[in-house]
Amino acid sequence: MAKELTEKPEPTSSPSEKPEETSADKLFKTAFGLFLRNLVELVRPKLAARLDLDHADLQATELYADFRKQGLREPDVVAKVKTLDGEDRLVVVHVDVEGRFGQAMDERMMEYGLHLVLKEKKPVVSIAVFLSGGKQSLEVREVVWQGEKWVTLRFYYLAFAWGRAWQRTT
Predict the structure, then answer these.
(1) How many other β-carbons are positioned within 10 Å of the β-carbon of residue 152?
(2) What pTM was estimated for this model as a whole?
């Protein structure tokens, strides 16, 4: 029997459930976790040279509340990495994989980054990997929340268009 148009659709998951993952999602999360050094060297060689990526401590990702959508979010790859400058400092490297480039990713990357900064109290390097789309192979994206006369928040992340990078080299 067909549902009435006035009925609300049943939610696909409750706010306490983990979002569904496809096998492709799992594959890319695993790959970027294993090849974190290669990814960071590819998108930011100078940064990679300052980090001890061979001993990156991959973290079990943590769900956090997405208040606007009343659900949960989970970053794809989070690693704690020591610097090579001799000081015992940590940098959190956050990688998120997305099928296609889209403006909605700006806000999501900012939310992930802010969550990690508040939780870890450490600098966070955020990298979004787009499997297709994007204007150029690599760009620094800026997300600004602005009031009438002042900027409330400014966040930057690296947007890496995987497909575009390989188009240039072949």
Answers:
(1) 8
(2) 0.76
Helix 23-34, helix 36-43: angle, nearest 10: 80
Sign of CA dihedral 11, 16, 18, 19: positive
Token code pair at residue 31: 């790959």
pLDDT at position 31, please? 82
CA torsion sign for 111, 44, 138, 75 is negative
Q: Distance between alpha carbon 139 and the CA centroid of its chain, in Å?
A: 14
Q: What residues contact residue 27 under an 8 Å CB cut-off, 6+ apart?
A: none
The per-residue pLDDT for range 3-17, each reduced to its tens digit, is 333 333 333 344 444
The structure tokens listed for 139 are 């760009």
Nearest CA to 81 out of 57, 109, 48, 117 is that of 57
C-alpha neighbours within 13 Å on the C-beta side of residue 126: 25
